[in-house]
């Protein structure tokens, strides 16, 4: 979940209160999704046709608070409450493309947040598991996923630092909050050939978006994709323990 600009959030909230951009749940929102994908995702270099189509299909406005729905397709993260946000569309696409999910693979989404990332992943494979540490968000996301037709996504409330060993191994893992280091449990729960995409770095600073890959022989390699700003991961073991 990316950090959102306080100024942007204040403007968005004020505009909603003034009714300056009324929400529209009709087919016009499909046009907004198409524009979002073309301008915010494809123009920035995301070319995977399956990811682009998934982003066109998932109704992002169904995964944000009602007062934020007029801004659902804007090029920015948006607040969800509990100090969390839904990530900018480009970042969702970037991380989804990075883990290269194939049909039938098992995927873990750490930090359910709104449920939007899980829904995008569910367009690529029927085996999506998602875990959220904030109970309020987990319950809201569950309701949003069910209402939007993604009831097959398996969700729980828990500490994402530990992953979800009962359902491991995973072919891909996406993490929507930034730990200081790569959580060892997530690497352990990767299947051979598995991919893990997550932001890593200290809170309140720019972080590195990493792609961690477990080779067939069990060795692990990682590379930095770009610089990002995410909310910090909560839970887990403090550094040095």
Written overview of the protein:
The chain has 241 residues and is α/β, with parallel strands linked by helices. It has one domain (6-228): Rossmann fold. The protein has seven helices and nine strands, in the order αααββαβαβαββαβββ. It has helices spanning 6-18, 28-41, 49-57, 89-99, 116-122, 135-147, 184-188, and strands at residues 78-81, 84-86, 106-110, 127-132, 154-157, 170-175, 190-200, 207-214, 220-228. It has a seven-stranded mixed β-sheet. A two-stranded antiparallel sheet has the order 1-2.
Cα(first) to Cα(last) distance is: 25 Å
Return the CATH architecture.
3-Layer(aba) Sandwich
**Cα Rg:** 17 Å
Characterize the overall form: globular
Broad structural category = alpha/beta
**Total number of strands:** 9
- CATH fold category name: Rossmann fold
> Would you tell me the overall average pLDDT?
89
